[in-house]
Amino acid sequence: MENFLATGYKDQYESIVESITTITDEQSMLSHFENCNSPYWILGHILVARLNLLVMLGEPSIYPAEIFQQFIPGSTPGTNNSNTISFSQMASDFKIIHPRFLDILTDKETDLETTIEGKSVFGHLLEYLAHEAFHAGQLDILVTATK
User: Fold this and answer.
1) What number of other Cβ atoms are within 10 A of residue 28's Cβ?
2) Which of 50, 25, 28, 24 is nearest to 40 (CA)?
3) pTM to 2 decimals?
4) In tens digits, what is the pLDDT along the chain, a chain of 147 residues?
5) pLDDT at position 78
6) Among 50, 58, 74, 86, which is most buried by a count of CB atoms within 10 Å?
């Protein structure tokens, strides 16, 4: 199963990186469609989800809780406070954590059956993968529609 998860997350990573490569910090804050998240929020949400999984698996967090709060469902990221992080920084951090994320997924020592918050680690990883696919699709649509 580890290979299935690693392959899924690797494919999502490539899709997300392809989508975000051409987006500037300024462009990332724009939402071109009614009731649609901005690329800034989508990338932050995806990154925070991956970081949350890493924390579940025992890795230290690279962001304080205030950053995480900006990207939970229903949140609106602030643009003028000390806890704001730029789109380009998030893109860089996403690329930096990806190899460690894949290492953990393919490590034979990672116990995918451990239960955290009433669900197996495998269950969390699978749920997050499906959720990430949804948001990666949003990014792709936004980038394609605004070219």
Assistant:
1) 22
2) 28
3) 0.89
4) 458 889 999 999 999 999 999 899 998 988 777 778 889 999 999 999 999 889 888 888 888 888 888 888 877 765 545 568 899 999 999 999 999 989 888 887 788 888 888 889 899 999 999 999 999 999 998 888 776
5) 55
6) 50
Domain residue spans of the chain: 2-145
Map the chain to HEC letters.
CHHHHHHHHHHHHHHHHHHHCCCCHHHHCCCCCCCCCCHHHHHHHHHHHHHHHHHHCCCCCCCCHHHHHCCCCCCCCCCCCCCCCCHHHHHHHHHHHHHHHHHHHHCCCCCCCCEECCEEHHHHHHHHHHHHHHHHHHHHHHHHHCC
Whole-number Å distance between alpha carbons of 147 and 145: 6
Query: Taking a C-beta distance cutoff of 8 angstroms, is the pair 44, 88 a contact?
Result: no
Residue partners of 78: CB distance under 8 A and separation at least 6: 70, 84
CA distances from 139 to 20, 39, 126, 142 (A): 8, 6, 20, 5
pLDDT at residue 83, as a whole number: 66
CATH class of the domain at 2-145:
mainly alpha
